[in-house]
Amino acid sequence: MSQVFNFSAGPAMIYPEVLAQAQAELTNWLGQGVSVMEVSHRGKLFMELIKQAEADIRELYRIPDNYRVLFLQGGARGQFAAIPMNLIGKKGKALYLNSGHWSATAAKEARNFAEIDEINIVHNDNGISRIGSLDFSDIAENYDYVHYCPNETISGVEINEIPNVGNGVLVADMSSNVLSRHIDISKFGVIYAGAQKNLGPAGILLLIIRDDLIGHARQATPSIWNYAVQRDADSMINTPPTFAWYLCSLVFKHILSIGGLDVIAQRNAVKAQTLYDYIDSSKLYRNNVAKENRSIMNVTFVTGDPELDAQFVAEATAAGLQALKGHKVLGGMRASIYNAMPLAGVEALIEFMKAFEAKHAK
Which GO terms describe its molecular function (predicted)? Predict the structure, then answer.
């Protein structure tokens, strides 16, 4: 295969156009004769960059004026602790909706800081994972917030319906499906997302938070995790990951240039449906998620034979189809087809799958 396609779950591929621009500007950013990595984060040019990056993400996501956009460090795991430190208030507890590994991990971390109730919303229906009811309007206001992960990268389960929390505060870890389509930001109190899947490189995190939820951090909250402190410091109480921020800004501009999230959503739908249609027609591969809950970002599949799965991954890698090994928790295969993955990559994967099936299907 002449072209390599990277199906990594994260850090994931970045648009080639963005990488080409970064490469061209690497040693001479904006005609300054130096790299963006070498300029002051508080200098005029970099401050203009972050201002434009916020304007672009606001335009892409149609973020209301009463929401603040922060670019933070520590990844989503950092927010597993920061969320309860900032949001646990008079009610003293939070509700976590468990849909898989990452939502469960977030709940485990939050227990270090508050009382946590947990509800399992994924049900096993004859070996098929299916999301249950998402109406929590009768109990949500008993909690300071309700937390969920709309896309579980490991199991390939995606929650397309926004949970109903009535007048409660909904918090979402969108690390693996951020900017994959339009969402109604006003339904959420907080959205956070690690950059390394759809936004840019690892090392920076996007946080979108409603204004009224800032300023209530417990006294012991470290300043780097305190949303009010970060808001007042333009997300820069310490030196930020400037190159990661710069690359995110290029990604935002690129998405806007190709038509925004309407175009992204249409492309993602086509890629995912094309791959799932083949898997469903196959005699060798199967996906174990209900159709209405299949992730458009992380497509999981197995042959039913762990040794054959390992052979598939090895041969696919040799053919230029990288990082298809499933997570160690579940095994099998996982094709992560985030925003930057072209349809050509999915089509190349399907051609390989067909050839492999022809040799091994019984």
Answer: O-phospho-L-serine:2-oxoglutarate aminotransferase activity; pyridoxal phosphate binding
Contacts of 108 (CB under 8 A, 6+ apart): none
Any known ligand binding at 42?
A: yes
- Average pLDDT in the chain: 96
Q: Do residues 270 and 246 make contact, with C-beta atoms less than 8 angstroms apart?
A: no
CA dist 178 to 38, 128, 172, 310, 330, Å?
Answer: 29, 25, 10, 30, 23
> Is residue 11 one of the residues assigned to a domain?
no
Q: How many domains would you assign to the chain?
A: 2
Backbone φ/ψ region at 83: left (φ over 0), alpha (ψ -120 to 50), beta: alpha
Is the entire prediction scored with pTM above 0.90?
A: yes
pLDDT for 1 beyond 80: no
Residue 245 annotated as lining a ligand binding site: no
To the nearest whole percent, how much of the chain has pLDDT over 70?
99
Residues annotated as catalytic are 102, 173, 197
Q: What is the mean pLDDT of residues 125-151?
A: 96
Phi, psi of 301, rounded to the nearest 5 degrees: -160, 155
From residue 266, alpha-carbon distances to 14, 94, 161, 175, 279 in Å are 18, 35, 18, 20, 20
Domain range for 185 is: 17-258
Asked whether residue 173 is marked as a ligand-binding residue, the answer is yes
Instruction: Consult the annotation and say whether 102 binds a ligand.
Output: yes
* Contact call for residues 335 and 349 (beta carbons, < 8 A): yes
pLDDT at residue 361, as a whole number: 73
Both 106 and 199 in a single domain?
yes
